[in-house]
Design a protein that fits this description.
Elements lengths: L6 H11 L1 H13 L4 H13 L3 E5 L5 H12 L3 E5 L6 H5 E6 L4 E6 L6 E5 L6 H13 L1 E4 L2 E4 L5 E6 L12 H4 L4 E5 L4 H13 L12 H11 L6 H12 L16 E3 L3 H17 L7 H12 L4 E2 L1 H5 L4 H11 L4
Parallel strand pairs: 1-8, 1-9, 2-5, 5-8
Antiparallel strand pairs: 3-4, 6-7, 10-11
């Protein structure tokens, strides 16, 4: 490790700044039963300064998870229900003309919030999708001649239904690449579903959560995460994982050539490194280990790999591709 880094002091700083994470996670899990991976992914995206795409059937607490997180962090939350008749102005805002004063005034849209839920993002046309995704990338919105910075922290949580595709506008690959993580939300187990039903019958899951941290805590945590140590061997491991989605030098991965149409972009390498740092921070560790990378790799790479028709015919998924790469690339 770099001798210039005092790992003892850095470890103390990480332990101090990450104290609220377990409290935040516990607050989420009191409202969201049986979705531990979803909860951890939301916290990872929030602390990394990224955005998250949630894919799952209706009724799996995607919307509740977003609103609960906003309440726990004491941040402003807005929900945009994406529909075919939605306009960009309905998302980012517009200039309103006043005949009385003969001037234009700014009317800000729902995107001006800390947590923006884009519900069923693939229901709206490309022009509306791009208006939101521009705000995600630039962290600002231009209305007329004025540019307005979005509040910090700023996080977009988009949802989409994986099976009901009639009348939808699938996100182009270049736009899905803007999301740091894509998480597949699955059904709870029978035991977890029993807990959900009993919780609603007793009223415990209908109670609104109280805030456990502030927006300033999140911003301070992000500054600390930037100091989490990433060894050169970990960086090389990340690059090899991502590069293996494009060109497979490893003989064990040659059989994937017929299934992969295109691989992950360099943005995947950046996001995988940032997310791995955050995973280490959430575990109150001042340095990244390979397990941190492996834990978050599927969520970072899932939406960045294109499959051929042959893959669809053979029922090969992007998760199968990622699993094969993780098992074949040598761990440092």
């Amino acid at each position: 490790m770099n001798n210039d880094i005092d790992m003892g002091k850095l470890g103390e700083l990480v332990a101090e700044k990450s104290e609220f994470v377990n409290v935040l996670r516990s607050g989420m899990e009191r409202q969201i039963v049986g979705q531990r991976h979803l909860v951890d992914a939301l916290l990872t995206a929030l602390l990394s300064g990224g955005h998250i795409l949630l894919e799952g059937m209706p009724g799996l607490a995607k919307t509740m998870a977003a609103s609960t997180l906003a309440r726990l962090v004491k941040g402003e939350f807005s929900r945009i229900q994406f529909t075919p008749d939605l306009l960009p102005a309905d998302v980012v805002g517009t200039m309103v003309y006043s005949p009385r004063s003969e001037t234009f005034s700014v009317k800000r849209g729902p995107v001006f919030a800390n947590f923006v839920l884009a519900d069923e993002i693939n229901r709206a046309p490309a022009k509306v999708q791009s208006a939101l995704l521009e705000a995600m990338q630039e962290q600002q919105v231009t209305l007329g001649e004025n540019t307005f910075a979005l509040p910090q922290p700023f996080m977009v949580l988009a949802t989409q239904n994986p099976i009901e595709q009639e009348g939808t506008y699938p996100l182009p690959e270049a736009q899905t690449d803007r999301f740091m993580l894509k998480v597949r939300v699955d059904y709870p187990s029978d035991v977890e579903e029993r807990n959900i039903v009993e919780g609603h019958l007793k009223g415990s899951l209908r109670e609104l959560p109280q805030s456990v941290c502030t927006k300033e805590d999140i911003i301070a945590a992000r500054e600390t995460i930037e100091k989490v140590y990433v060894d050169e061997r970990i960086v090389s491991y990340i690059i090899e994982l991502v590069f293996s989605t494009r060109k497979r030098k490893n003989p064990e991965l040659k059989d994937l050539d017929k299934y992969v149409l295109y691989g992950a972009s360099p943005r995947a390498s950046i996001n995988l490194a940032l997310a791995a740092r955050t995973v280490a921070f959430m575990k109150r560790r001042a340095f990244v280990i390979p397990e941190d990378v492996r834990e978050i790799a599927a969520d970072v790479l899932r939406h960045r790999i294109g499959l051929t028709y042959e893959a669809e015919a053979d029922n090969v998924t992007t998760d199968d591709i990622i699993g094969k790469i993780l098992s074949s690339v040598k761990v440092p």
